[in-house]
Protein 1
Amino acid sequence: MITVIKPGATEPQIQNLITWFEARGLKTNISEGEEQTIIGLIGDVTKVDIDLVEGLEIVDSVKRISDPYKRANRKFHPNDTVVDIGGHKIGGGEFQIIAGPCSVESSEQILSVAESVQKSGAALLRGGAFKPRTSPYDFQGMKADGIELLLEAKAKTGMPIVTEIMNGLHLPMFEHVDVIQVGARNMQNFELLKELGKVRGKAILLKRGLANTLQELLMSAEYIMSEGNENVILCERGIRTFETATRNTLDLSAVSVLKELSHLPVVVDPSHATGKRNLVEPMAMAAAACGADGLMIEVHNNPAEALCDGAQSLTPEQFDRLTKKVAKIRKAII
């Protein structure tokens, strides 16, 4: 349920109403926009007399929300959430590109890629330290050493870093990571999501699962936000369908639907979605055109020798061309 406050209501009046709600065992979520303040109520709202609340001097209206996700819901939070990562903002019209190799392989490799993608316009550096692989015999990542190499690249370039977590027990290793990524396979690892929700001041990039609906994605975001961390970025990375021409099927309609349902930023990963280098650029351009808040692109200085996902990784030269085209599209649609 949401309570819309009339313009001109004083802070003490609003706080008194919040106290009244919380005394009835309800959690409150406050959204202060330019024109109105909304108090979202979470819990057993049957304890609230709607007619009584609507009759209050400061209340404009009261509405029931049937959607199971509350904090991620645009009805609770009409204005776009803008996630600030070291001065680089995502959401609310702010667009950023996250780029780097699928996996960290060496100090020379990650620094070389970091410098090249930064020069081409990427704001954040991605790189896998822990790699969930379908086969137990494939390269699993450098783990803690990989995070250290990412931090070295961050120190030299100033780029915030993005890397994936697979286990809540690994959280201490991520203390200096700027954006913790939850991969598609862990989208419904609810215990992990709850642990990430307790982490304050750190952004969480939540990828859509291979076979999950958008409501399920938003419910996973709700797990994080319900624990107190509202710095969530949603990521569309393709879903598994009957089509075999691409690695997955990139669902660009998800961008528009998610923006209608939620206030959270939405980025698109065309690399994992298509699995093919030649398709990354056109899909990245399409993502920018349909209103995505950012892109996540895999870039490797030598894709032919990459230890992971070389077939979908761009060279630095290809990435530079992509960013120039994306910039033109962004300029045209703004």
Protein 2
Amino acid sequence: MKVFIDGQHGTTGLMLESRLSGRADVELLQPDFDKRKIFEAKRPLLEAADVVFLCLPDDAARESVAATPANTLIIDASTAHRTAPGWTYGLPELSPAHREAVAKSRRIAVNGCHACGFISLVYPLVSGGFLPASAQLSCTSLTGYSGGGIALIDAHEKSRTPGDKYHSPRPYGLTLAHKHLPEMRAISGLDAPPIFYPVVGDMFQGMLVSVPIWSSQFAKPMTAQDVHAALAAHYADANFVRVMPFDHDAATDGGFLDATACNGTNRLEIFVFGNGEQIILVARLDNLGKGASGAAIQCMNIACGLDENIGL
């Protein structure tokens, strides 16, 4: 099949190219490098491809969608279509209905990296009736700096002086209007978005997304063990989502969680910790894997009727 990565020289595009270039079933369509940002130069590739990946700013993604035939499979890694009518949200593990929608869709919006972790933790609890949609939640997400794109990558890579500001974890999104919030609310089924506190760390990739919940917030009080059992049952048949054992010592590295342990994979690991009435849910993933390029390839595989594990 012919595949065009529109925006292939950004972080997600380069990861997609790396993962797809060795596949015998994929022919990558390549634009002239010096014309890659000229719309009319890439239009023939949009029209010729069987699959188009969009790794673009939102407005550019919408422009490319308008120029792509209706029967072409588009997988959009931008924010433009994650809650848009007519688009399928690309997180098939959420339910059989989500997987079926990905399999049948020609328009798939890949999840945001922070949103992927949050939704994976919260959706099963809301959809299962354990957590009311009216629950008011907060979320903290520690991410590698590759999620900030080329400019932030350059700033970190060029700044290796001890004590430099880029060596410190740096919270951002402090206007409480992060671009992932609409999908975090809509896809998880909540009435209101969480209070979201993202933090970029001095690591290239990797992510820990955490959600604290009081036992009393559930429709009926639940212990941490109860929540763990509910999540484990929900993801029992998932290839890429694994609920880790409910054992603090076995699940941690001497009491610590390594944010980079899923790097280079399409895995998402879920942890449940708790003491009495306080519970913390944590999702660990590669922000460039299940949070971006890995999720995009998984969705392509499913939509094309292939084994979802191919290339992952």
Protein 3
Amino acid sequence: MSTDTTIDTEALGNSVEQGVDNLFRDGWGGALETILFAALLLVVCLVAKAILLKILDRALNKLTHVERSLHTFIRSMANILLWFVTLMVVAESLGINANSLLALVGVLGLAVSLAVKDSLANLASGLTILSTKPFKVGDYVEIGDIEGTVQDIGLVYTSLNTLDNRRILVPNSNVVDEEVINYTTEPLRRVDLKVTAAYDAPVEGVKAAIQAVIARHEKILADPAPFARLSGYGDSALEYTVRVWCQNQDYWTVYHDLLEGIKTAFDEQGISIPYPQMEVTLRK
């Protein structure tokens, strides 16, 4: 790589030297005229660049479904591209071979990309997240073994706030590689519970007690219909599965209210929840 860089640098130097020779070929008068023309061309290019960036800003502001971080990235890339075009145009007007300059920029770009390949991987992952939008700011998500509320989606890191108010910065490449669970995106969420009752408790009585608790709770939805049925035979008790639907934001309220309400209802109706136990028969 070093040899290619040297060759391109030498070619650029020769191109610049040839441009200087061409600049003064017609004497100081011709050189001054060429420089003034290049300066005028530079001003025109800068004005055109400012107008194009303003048009791009207006277009991006209309795209309300695109994250602000992606807006910033697109504008920065457009600004770099326009600066490069301006440099090439002005160099050509001064008689400098733009091909040599383009080759040098390509070699330098390759060297920089190899040096910051991890950051570029995070950057590419950040663009993937911003374009596919698996979550947005304010969503509660689980990324691998990390859970929290999304505070910011950057081009390199995604910032989460945990329930105990810790800030975690997750590299975007990890976000793309891990399984992401979004608990906020859907308006409804189902609460699943496993409840146990003694073998001698009537099944219909247990179901009726559970359904009564469900019917009294104002945050539990009637559609989809609640579910409470016997679902298994445990070592010490019968297992009942309870499923109810609620608004996403009411999930934990309904979850804890059901646990407390079912225990209270069982106590009132004399339905016991057995401790783990084992029957041992001794034979002579």
